[in-house]
Structures are given as structure tokens and as C-alpha cells.
Amino acid sequence: MKINTLILNHFMLFENAEFNWSKNINIICGENSTGKTTLLKVMYSIL
Fold first, then answer.
1. What pTM value is reported for the model?
2. pLDDT, tens digit, for every residue of 11-39?
3. Cα–Cα distances in angstroms (integers) from residue 41 to residues 12, 18, in the given order
4. Residue 19: strand pairing partners
5. What HEC string does the chain produce?
């Protein structure tokens, strides 16, 4: 399965977030407690 776009509205730390994935490499980085691990768990659960 290929995910091109992920939209999260009122989900945990994300109020209105849209993620558009490229065809090559996507890097998720940010400060502590900003939702990086939550985003990965969401991606894992929908696959």
C-alpha cells in the first residue's frame, strides 16, 4: 500500500495537520513531544 497524503484533524497532538509524502525519502524530525512517534504509530496502524 502506498500513502501519498495523510490528514489528521483533532487527533492527539495534531489539530489540523496534512502530510504529503514524496516518492523518494521522507525525514521526520522535530523537537521533543511534537508528535513524531505518534505520527509513525498512526502510519503503522493504517498499513
1. 0.73
2. 888 999 999 998 889 999 999 999 899 99
3. 12, 16
4. 6
5. CCCCEEEEEEECCEEEEEEECCCCCCCCCCCCCCCHHHHHHHHHHHC
